[in-house]
Amino acid sequence: MNKRIGAYFMGFLMAAGLPLSAAQDKKEADRLQNCGTVLKEILDIPDDIPQDLLDKADCVIVYPSVLKAAFVIGGSYGRGAMTCRTGEHYTGPWSAPTMMALEGGSVGFQLGGQATDFVLLVMNGRGAHSILNSKVKLGADASVAAGPKGRTAAAATDVTLRAEVLSYSRSRGLFAGISLEGSTVRPDNDANERVYGKKVEAESIVFKGAVAVPPPAQRLVSYLNQKSPKNLGSDNPPPQ
Q1: What pLDDT, in 10s, does the model give residues 190-205?
Q2: C-alpha torsion sign, points 31, 37, 43, 45
Q3: For 74, phi and psi rounded to 5 degrees?
Q4: Domain boundaries, the chain
Q5: For residues 152 and 52, is the Cβ–Cβ distance under 8 A?
């Protein structure tokens, strides 16, 4: 009898855990799909991220629908995904994405209570390598600037052109460069495990091709391969 009760109890626990796991997996899948949708919508508007800057970027990070409330409650953050060009000098097709977290700093004061989408361009190998290895504070560990808008980056300042990360936002349909100085970005390893079904480091996903592009991320990666297939600013050494 005790064995039967124990078996029933174990079965109940397993059944109870399945919905939570499935819900978490669906949440990550939805997030990846949203990253693709947000990026396409932003890159398709007339006054968008300059094509020449996108063509010089080594990596792109997308954080869809970040809410101010997420930064008011301690320890909360926005979540998204990061993909980089593959190959020794970032000249190959865009990689499978690593899940990413965006934390606090001054973000909460800039959002104004509205859901905001963020797109970050990582402009060199040093910035990409740093972000994929650990938590990086923008403005301290990696230089950041509000990205210029328009068809070309001709109007960009020297500060913008020297920045390792260029950041953009979209809120209430308005698209603009925005400074995320003081915020931190880092790989979300728990989310990566849920997406890929195993523990895998962010660098292994992006630089070593450890996993294939998951179906929910196909739109994000394929659109970048279509929109910016070649790196026109590749002068970066491979990460060590």
Answers
A1: 999 999 999 999 999 9
A2: negative
A3: -55, 135
A4: 19-227
A5: yes
